[in-house]
Sequence to fold (92 residues):
Amino acid sequence: MKKMHGTAFQTDVWNQIKKIPKGETMSYKDIAIAIGKPKASRAVANACGKNPNPIIVPCHRVIASDGSIGGYTGSGGIKTKRQLLKKEGVLI
Fold:
């Protein structure tokens, strides 16, 4: 496992993402609101993209506000994100 080195903002995002239960999702905006930065949805998405531990910090559980899958920088990209969510019972 890679060390979790990031900015204070990234660390806040990653810690919030760790709280998302298996089989559930939150939007980038939901995460931004939860960490007290309601206008930082895009920055949350960027923090997800910098996630050094994509399974430990399950950024695949973070989706776009419109219900679409959003991006995924982990190995395999969006295809892997969709598979991980499906494995957890989330269909998008």
About this structure: The first helix runs from residue 8 to 18.
